[in-house]
Design brief:
Blueprint (H helix, E strand, L loop, with lengths): L1 H5 L10 E9 L8 H10 L14 H8 L7 H9 L11 H14 L6 E8 L3 E9 L5 E6 L6 H7 L15 H16 L11 E9 L2 E8 L12 E8 L13 E3 L2 E4 L7 H5 L12 H13 L3 E10 L5 E5 L8 E5 L1 E10 L3 E11 L4 E12 L8 E13 L10 E13 L20 E13 L3 E17 L2 E18 L1 H9 L1 H7 L2 E13 L8 E12 L1 H10 L10 E2 L2 E2 L3 E13 L9 E13 L43 H7 L4 E14 L2 E13 L22 E11 L4 E11 L13 E6 L4
Parallel strand pairs: 1-3, 4-6, 7-9, 7-13
Antiparallel strand pairs: 2-3, 5-6, 8-9, 10-13, 11-12, 14-15, 15-16, 16-17, 17-18, 18-19, 19-20, 20-21, 21-22, 22-25, 23-24, 25-26, 26-27, 27-28, 28-29, 29-30, 30-31
Helix pairs in contact: 2-5, 3-4, 10-11
Length: 762
């Protein structure tokens, strides 16, 4: 059996199993770029040996099960899990030697040589290569074109940003990247037909271990590639299909030919997202920006821009002479552009039935309806209306359940306007951004009814901006974020419960939040080629400052508790700060590989003051901890604040509302591993807790103390399986408590937890 698992049993007679290769760099002293060179040399070694684990090669065993079979279980297992043996006879040693030598030459080691040695055993063999690079060649001169032509002048002007530096080592990759760099600069200066292949590097390496390079434009480059082009006619077609014949008569708007679809779009809505202008120099940067802006409107499936020589031909221009001399007559080449946009359906309606399981123990069906209008005001404004109806029954509770049945009805609407509605001097169009800025207006209402206990109403209204200046940066500013919560009705039994628990009464009291917030997000996950990716989010939220200033200066009425009111309602005043930092490190250079370490740190604090002094943070704005995206060994709000523990037998509803705080610290570390296609595994460690800023006699041990908070962190660890099919992820994480905030876990806190969730935790 051991022989079968090692795979050696299945090696044909007279053959040897190839077990891999080592590449050794033989240099008299450590090379400056030795690590990078080592990686590059190893990358060309072929073929890759069969995978093994502790000397076992089970894939060879599965492969053998399918040998000679065209169907059946053995064939299926072989196709799914098997791998044919890689034999020594398949290794092209001489070709690999040449590739390693070639890579040395590409890195400036022109005298580099390679030798190979085969180390054979009874049934296995490895091939080891030794690279002897010699001395590296460095640049002694880097010369740019010197002719007095438009194209040479344009190339010469880029020399200050050149990747080629005197004294640095010759590198073929840098030469290739230099051509791409120069081409990118020229494309933004009108040279539409230019290409990197039109540049030629002439290298002279006969001067000892020095080399010179002369950059030239190839004499075979076509004439049209050597002159800048200007845009002439630009056509905008917002309803393009493959069989389009453009029978609609265009209109002239701001110099564009616009094919109107006035039932869906106003011309202004489209031209605001177009950054190519008639009679302007062609710039690839503006073409890419136009594509990005139009796609980010969310109203088009596809956007394509086609260029062609102008139908009207080139135009004559007079170039002013130097020093007052007579100007020269010249020709300005021109391009026409067609911007072709294929629309989504303007309106859509979606309905779905869900089975919801909430962190407070309520489970039941939910029905959601979503309506979307992709151009509600004919300016690519997206109107999204969601309606929800849910019926829930409490299936998990400690002691006697407080709310056994719950009904929830809600509706909310959001209008996304593809521009910043702001004063013109703020330049709200953001002309240097590739991403369409948005103004968001939202409103919502939700009614929650707990049978035999209470009915609660929640109202919300917000207005804000979302914009990006780079692909990694996003900013959201909400100058208006209003929330109002009221206990519309309660039974006598529930009223007695509120009277007995001060903090529970505070959670259900009327809350009027006049907030403003700002969030900045930096996210490198969009840069998929990076092995190390950073995510940072910082947010600040304030509420009640303006209202309190007006109330104090205008002598607004006060409530019985001595707090200012607006329309008879006390308003909250606080400041809240949140930070989140994540780091993703992929073990492989290959972006498609999922093996990586991931870490996250969350820090948040809310500070009530002014009109909320002594009343605490609004309940909606407080922190909870635990659950499938937090400390997974504990249920949501099972722990905290601090070392506080609900009295045994306390109603589940009470403990759920009690276990929140004004401050949160949480950290998570996770290792993710590819297991099989679409299946990934994970090992993780979570730690964190919440605390109160001020003492609460009803929750002893809940106040934060710098000297003791580390000993009050809850810690859990576990393993998980994730079904990842790219467009959605189903996650199963099992976690075990290692430590509770009060010390060794006891009672229900000792039990492990299986977390079922959609998506990754972070």
């Amino acid at each position: 059996m051991l022989s079968a698992c090692s795979g050696l049993k299945f090696i044909p007679e007279g053959e040897k199993l190839y077990t891999g290769s080592k590449v050794t760099i033989n240099a008299p002293e450590k090379l400056k770029d030795e690590s990078a060179l080592q990686t590059e040399l190893e990358s060309v070694v072929r073929p890759k040996p069969n995978g093994s684990l502790l000397g076992m090669r089970p894939k060879l065993y599965f492969w053998h099960m399918g040998v000679g079979k065209t169907k059946g279980l053995g064939k299926k297992l072989a196709d799914q899990f098997g791998e044919a043996p890689v034999l020594l006879s398949q290794v092209e040693v001489k070709a690999t030697e040449d590739l390693i030598s070639n890579r040395q030459h590409n890195n400036g080691y022109f005298q580099g040589k390679t030798t190979a040695e085969v180390k054979a055993k009874d049934k296995t063999a490895e091939v080891n290569y030794t690279a002897t690079p010699g001395r590296v060649y460095t640049w002694s001169e880097v010369n740019f074109p010197s002719r007095d032509t438009l194209i040479d002048k344009a190339i010469r002007a880029t020399q200050g940003e050149s990747l080629l530096k005197v004294g640095e080592a010759y590198n073929l990759g840098k030469l290739t990247n230099e051509r791409v760099r120069i081409d990118a600069v020229l494309k933004n200066q009108g040279y539409y037909y230019f290409a990197p292949d039109y540049l030629l590097f002439q290298v002279d390496s006969t001067l000892g271990h020095k080399a010179t390079v002369d950059l030239r434009v190839k004499p075979t480059a076509p004439a049209k590639a050597l002159q800048p082009y200007w845009l002439n006619e630009i056509k905008l077609n917002t309803d393009y299909v493959l069989a389009d014949t453009s029978m609609v008569t265009p209109i002239r708007y701001k110099g564009y030919q616009y094919y109107p679809d006035e039932k869906v779009f106003k011309a202004k809505a489209i031209t605001n997202a177009v950054f190519m202008y008639p009679d302007s120099l062609f710039r690839r940067r503006r073409r890419d920006q136009t594509l990005s802006r139009l796609m980010s409107l969310g109203t088009f499936k596809f956007v394509e821009i086609r260029f062609r020589p102008s139908v009207e031909g080139d135009t004559a221009v007079i170039t002013p002479g130097a020093g007052g001399a007579a100007g020269r007559l010249g020709v300005r080449p021109r391009l026409d552009a067609d911007i072709l946009m294929t629309q989504y359906k303007k309106k859509s309606l979606r309905a779905e039935v869900q089975l919801a399981t909430k962190t407070n123990g309520f489970t039941g069906p939910a029905f959601n309806v979503s309506f979307r209008n992709r151009s509600a005001l004919r300016g690519a404004e997206q109107l999204i209306v969601n309606a929800t109806a849910a019926f829930e029954t409490q299936t998990r509770a400690s002691g006697s359940a407080v709310g056994l049945t719950s009904y929830e009805l809600g509706v909310n609407a959001q209008l996304l306007i593809p521009r910043l509605i702001a004063p013109a001097f703020l330049n709200p169009r953001l002309p240097n951004s590739d991403f369409q800025p948005r103004t968001s207006i939202g409103a919502g209402y939700k009614n929650i009814t707990r049978t035999d206990f209470f009915r609660q109403d929640l109202f919300s209204l917000n207005y804000g901006y979302v914009f990006k200046t780079k692909i990694t940066n996003e900013q959201e500013f909400r100058p208006i974020d209003i929330q109002y919560v009221r206990l519309a009705d309660s039974t006598r039994e529930f009223s007695r419960l509120l009277d007995s628990r001060k903090y529970l009464a505070n959670a259900f009291r009327q809350q009027f939040i006049l907030g403003s917030s700002y969030r900045y997000t930096y996210n490198q996950q969009v840069l998929e080629q990076r092995r190390q990716q950073i995510y940072f989010s910082g947010a600040v939220e304030v509420s009640g400052n303006v209202a309190n200033a007006l109330a104090s200066s205008l002598n607004f009425a006060k409530s019985d508790s001595g707090r200012y009111t607006i329309a008879g309602q006390e308003f909250s005043q606080y400041a809240k700060f949140d930070l989140e930092f994540r780091e993703y490190y992929r073990l492989s250079q290959d972006p498609s590989k999922g093996n990586r370490f991931v870490g996250r740190l969350l820090v948040g604090v809310g500070l009530p003051y002014g009109n909320s002094r002594g009343a605490g943070m609004p309940y909606l704005k407080q922190y909870g901890i635990g659950g499938p995206n937090s400390v997974r060994a504990y249920a949501a709000r099972q722990i905290g604040p601090g070392t506080y523990r609900p009295t045994p037998g306390t109603d589940n509803l009470t403990s759920f509302y009690d276990q929140v705080g004004d401050m949160r610290i949480e950290g998570n570390v996770e290792y993710r591993q590819d297991l099989f296609p679409y299946v990934k595994g994970a090992l993780f460690l979570d730690a964190g807790n919440i605390w109160l800023i001020n003492d609460d006699p009803e929750r002893p041990g809940g106040k934060f103390s710098p000297s003791t908070f580390l000993n009050q962190l809850a810690v859990g660890a576990g393993a998980g399986i994730r079904i990842d099919v790219q467009f959605f992820v189903i996650r199963f994480d099992y976690a075990v408590p290692l430590r509770a905030p009060y010390g060794t876990p006891e009672g229900e806190d000792k039990a492990g937890r299986l977390n079922l969730a959609i998506g990754y935790p972070f």
